C-alpha cells in the first residue's frame, strides 16, 4: 500500500495542492472509497496527523460522516470516484434537508480512454445526478486549475451551507505524470 | 406460519422504558436517534437539542455518530437505532471497528421487525445476530441483552466504558403512539450545534 519511495524530490502535484486547500479551510476529516486517481491525495492525507482519514465501505457512509462531523463542529470532505455518486443519492436527501455543508472531490471514470464499459453509465450521468440532488458543480480539466477551483468551491460550501462537488476529468488524472510543472 | 416473527411479541423489554432509562439524567450526552421508532422513543423521553433525530438517511445513523464522536472526542456519543436501520448500514460497523472511537456507543433496539412499514420481519428474526456482526467488525465490546435486570449495568457500560461499544437490546415488537420530534432538518442541526457550542463554552 505504501507508495514507492522516490529517489528524487517529489514534484508538487495537483494532489498536494488539494491537500493544502483542505488544510487552509480547516477541514479535519477526510473520508474516502479509494480510486487510483485519488491515491496520492489519500496518501498525503493519511500521512498528515492533523487529519483524520476514514476509509469507508460505501460512499454514502461519507455523507453521513460529514453530517456528524458538522454537528460536532468539524469540517469533512468525501473523496470518491464517479460510480460512488450513485451509492450516495438517498443520503444526499438528508444533507439537503438538514442544510449540512458538504463537499466532495470526484475522480471521473467512464470518460475518454475508459477501458471498462461498466463505468460509462455513472460516468456519463454523475454530473446530472448531482445536479438533481442540489449540488453546485465544477469540472477541472487542467491540473493547473485545480487549486483555484477547489479553493473557491470549499469557500462557497462552508460560507453558504451548500452542497458542492468538484469533478476531476479522467483525462487530467489519467496522465502518467501527475506533475504540472 | 411465521414463528420467528411472533417470538418478539413476547419479549419482556419495552422500547420506550429502555430508552427512558438510557437517557435519564443524560448531562452532556450527544444522541443520534435512528430513523423511525428509535427517534420517536428518544423524543418520548423528552425532546432535547443534543439529540439528532433522523427522519431519513436510513443506514446512516452509526456513520453520523462516528463523525460526531471524532469531532467531539471528549463527549460521549450514543447512537440509538433500530434493527432495520442498522441492517442497511452494516458496513458502517466495519468503519467504526477500524477507527476505534473511544467515546462512541451504539444501541440497537431490536424488535426483529420493520416497525414503520407494516411490521414485516427483519433478518434478525431469522439468522442474523447484530452483536456478533459488530464484534466481528472490530467492536470487541459487543453484547445482547433481553432482560430488565440487565439495563442498569448496560447503561453504565455504554456511558462510561471505553468504546467503541455495541449493545443489541431485544425489545418487544409493538406499535406505540407516535411522539414526533421537530421535522425540519435545518432546525434540528442548528439547535444541536448551538447547544453543543454553549455546553463547551465556545
Structure in words:
The complex is a heterodimer of chains A (181) and B (202). With 181 residues, chain A is α/β, with parallel strands linked by helices. Chain A contains 7 helices and 6 strands. Chain A has helices at residues 14-24, 39-47, 59-71, 82-98, 120-132, 146-160, 170-174, and strands spanning 27-32, 52-55, 75-81, 102-107, 136-140, 163-168. Chain A has a 6-stranded parallel beta sheet, sandwiched between helices. In chain A, helix 1 (14-24) runs parallel beside helix 6 (146-160). The longest helix of chain A has 17 residues, at 82-98. Chain A is globular and about 40 Å long. By secondary structure, chain B is an alpha/beta fold. Chain B has helices at residues 3-7, 15-23, 37-44, 61-71, 83-88, 90-99, 130-136, 151-160, 185-199, and strands spanning 30-33, 51-53, 77-82, 104-110, 113-114, 120-121, 141-145, 165-170. In chain B, helix 3 links the parallel strand 1 (30-33) and strand 2. Chain B is globular, with a radius of gyration of 16 Å. The mean pLDDT of chain B is 96. The A-B interface holds A 28-29, 52, 54-58, 60-74, 76, 90-91, 93-94, 97-100 and B 30, 32, 52, 54-72, 89, 91-92, 94-95, 98-99, 184-186, 188-189, 192-193, 196-197, 202.
